[in-house]
Amino acid sequence: MLEIIQLSPKTDNGYFVVKYIKKVLKSPVFWIVIVYTIFLAYSTHIEDPKEIPYPIAQINFKTSRKYISSNYAASSRLGNHLFELASVLSISRDLNRVPIFFIEDCYHEKMWEDTNNLIPGLMNQFLVINGSVPRAIRRTSFHEKCCTFDNPSVLKENKDEYLHLKGTHYQSWKYFSQMRNELLGFLKTPVNNFFYLPVSSESTFVTCVHIRRGDFLRVGFHVAGEHFIKSSMDFVQNQEGRSRKHMATVFFGDDFSFMDSLRNRTVYNTQDAFVSQNSPSDDLLYSKANCDVVIITAAHSTFGWWMGYLSKGNTVYYTDIKYTKDYILETGEFTSEDYYPPHWTPLKYAGSNNLTVTRSFN
Ligand SMILES: *[C@@H]1O[C@H](CO)[C@@H](O)[C@H](O)[C@H]1NC(C)=O
Ligand SMILES: *[C@@H]1O[C@H](CO)[C@@H](O)[C@H](O)[C@H]1NC(C)=O
Ligand SMILES: *[C@@H]1O[C@H](CO)[C@@H](O)[C@H](O)[C@H]1NC(C)=O
């Protein structure tokens, strides 16, 4: 390219231009520059260094067993990891296959670590192999919509020794409907007593309110407003826990100043209301031991979902997504009956000009 620029005084003569173009095209340097430019453009376009694949996994073929593995949305967070791993484990049992977790890149490595840190018993069910899925393994389409159940029995016909599913997210309780107790047992034993947070007991009833805001506000996922949250808490309080002497409320989420001011404005006696400052993993362990009821305010927070699913009381209220403008509804990938367990209670405003939260019936 430099050569061409230096040539410019002579370019009034067409002959020279043609001759030089020919010469340039023959030059290996020219082609190296082109290839390198394309490579750079390509790599700066896709490369998040955490997505650079690890070397191909070394595995044996023609063994006496059959295996199953899946694609994962590994860069997502804990709530997503739990859906994916619980579902793939359960599917592996339906199909009588050994579940494999391939550590395909840095995100998978983090997913493996974070999951192990919360629920080691779940990860222990997998054969963990450090490396990318070998090309020789065929990719099979399954579960193509994030939040709609596909019946795994369609995979029974598949005879591949290594069945690798292309799906991600697996956000449906139906995949692991029989596994709640087992999953609770897989959780690690907490190393602390959650310090300042209240303990659920015969005399103390703990209401846990999960509020996801942060990134949800930016990406178009539903976020409940303060009035809706307050009114939901009133509704739930009327339904639950009147038999116990003390009522305590704990707020969980990612926006501490919002929760702090909400706490001061919604709970009459703020002595009995708390904002958790624990890690996400400890919040889930706390829920297992102490949440008598859980209110999920951001309709499609998978973390809120797991707080509810693993909670002590197994009594859950959630914002009915049908009455929100959540972006996932437009994708057509979300099926309410598949996502929310049937014994959970959906909430909505009583009417367009009645801002009292009540049970949603349809
Ligand atoms: C997996 O392999 C990568 C390199 O390929 C290495 O950096 C990483 O530490 C390994 N992880 C585990 C858990 O062995
Ligand atoms: C909430 O109340 C506590 C004391 O009860 C106070 O320390 C805190 O600053 C208040 N927070 C807000 C956001 O008003
Ligand atoms: C608003 O809805 C609630 C719950 O259904 C009901 O109890 C209340 O009477 C309604 N208020 C008005 C003003 O209609």
Account of the protein in words:
It is a single chain. The protein is of the alpha/beta class and 362 residues long. It folds into three domains: 2-47, no CATH class; 67-186, no CATH class; 204-359, Rossmann fold. The chain has 14 helices and twelve strands. It has helices at 2-7, 14-26, 28-46, 78-94, 106-118, 120-123, 180-186, 214-219, 226-239, 256-266, 280-290, 302-309, 328-331, 336-339, and strands spanning 67-70, 98-103, 127-130, 139-140, 162-165, 204-211, 246-253, 273-275, 293-296, 316-319, 345-351, 354-359. The strands form two sheets. Strands 8-7-6-9-10-11-12 form a seven-stranded mixed β-sheet, with helices on both faces. α4 (78-94) packs across α12. It is globular, with a radius of gyration of 27 Å. One 2-acetamido-2-deoxy-beta-D-glucopyranose binds next to α10.
Short overview:
The protein is α/β, with parallel strands linked by helices and 362 residues long. It has helices at 2-7, 14-26, 28-46, 78-94, 106-118, 120-123, 180-186, 214-219, 226-239, 256-266, 280-290, 302-309, 328-331, 336-339; strands at 67-70, 98-103, 127-130, 139-140, 162-165, 204-211, 246-253, 273-275, 293-296, 316-319, 345-351, 354-359.
